[in-house]
């Protein structure tokens, strides 16, 4: 009915908003980064290309979703990712770490972080206190 249509229209609006937000971030990336630090133009250009390709691949990967909850989750995760990128000025995925009993920093699955470089991980953060 009309309620379902309205809910889906709200999702479409929110999805367009997060895509535009990410593309604006890519457009303004040099100014965003240079407010706090100096990076060479070549590195900044690579980061801009990366941001745009991530936006494109995320849209393509989720184009055929029909479940309201799945679409809402993708939109929320995308907004969160844009927020993290803007906060840390790093467009690449961040790893999630937990502390073990000795309070040393370790990766959640105990593996070497160098082996995981470049992969997007979606591991929840938790603190072990056993």
TrEMBL record:
InterPro entries: LYRM1. It comes from Guillardia theta. This is Uncharacterized protein. PANTHER family: LYR MOTIF-CONTAINING PROTEIN 1. GO terms for cellular component: mitochondrion.
